[in-house]
Amino acid sequence: MPSYEFRCRSCGDTFEINRPMAQASDPARCPHGHDDTVKLLTTFATTGRAAAPAVSAPAAPTGGGCCGGGCCA
What we know:
By secondary structure, this protein is mainly beta. Helices cover 0% and strands 19% of the residues. The protein is built from no helices and three strands. It has strands spanning 3-8, 14-18, 37-39. Strands 2-1-3 form a three-stranded antiparallel β-sheet, with no helix packed on it. A hairpin with a 5-residue loop joins strand 1 and strand 2. The protein is rod-shaped, with a radius of gyration of 29 Å. The relative contact order is 0.20. The mean pLDDT is 81. InterPro entries: Regulatory_FmdB_Zinc_ribbon (IPR013429). This is Zinc ribbon domain-containing protein. Pfam families: Zn_ribbon_8. It comes from Nocardia fusca. Residues 1-42 form the Putative regulatory protein FmdB zinc ribbon domain.
């Protein structure tokens, strides 16, 4: 279930609420009972290892035939 972050305009408290996406725009009451809250814009980021540089495949043989022309005579 997604978590949404809100800030209370009355007391300045920032809090999170877990609710279904269908209720994302519903008003929220702060933990201190105030109704004047605003939903904050949050971002989602994943972290992890950076990808290693791509390793290119070996170049295809330039000769002809099934084995690149090295053993077929």
